[in-house]
């Protein structure tokens, strides 16, 4: 069994979705500081979108988009870098950690480019 198979990606995506809901709820009900609240909301939104995108990769693989297997690494890695850095700063980490956030955004963009590349294989006649 390969360590990074579809089952692992989907399990990590589900955990990411769970964390996104939790951080979003914490932003809504547990944080008074408006800046921290906004960091948590943004992290939760992007984390949730890319957890769902990882599930989309599984669907794309199922219908013939073989290259989609490369995108989850970028989506979930992006969640760790982008959302994780925002969560950390909202919870008191130093502001310089924000320099990591754009690397997560770049990972998201690469993941979406891979999805577009994978879509080219679907319904090839």
Query: What's the main sheet like?
Result: none
N-end to C-end Cα span: 32 Å
Q: How many separate structural domains?
A: 1
Which structural class do the helices and strands define? mainly alpha
Could you explain how this protein is built, in words?
This protein has 125 residues and is mostly helical. The protein has one domain. The chain contains 4 helices and no strands. The longest helix has 29 residues, at 34-62. It is elongated. The chain starts with 5 loop residues before the first helix and ends in a 6-residue tail after the last helix. The mean pLDDT is 94.
Q: Any descriptors?
A:
single chain, 125 residues, mainly alpha
SSE inventory with pairings:
Elements: H1 6-29, H2 34-62, H3 71-90, H4 101-119
Helix pairs in contact: 1-2, 1-3, 2-3, 2-4, 3-4
Q: How would you concisely characterize the structure shown here?
A:
The chain has 125 residues and is mainly alpha-helical. The chain has helices at 6-29, 34-62, 71-90, 101-119.
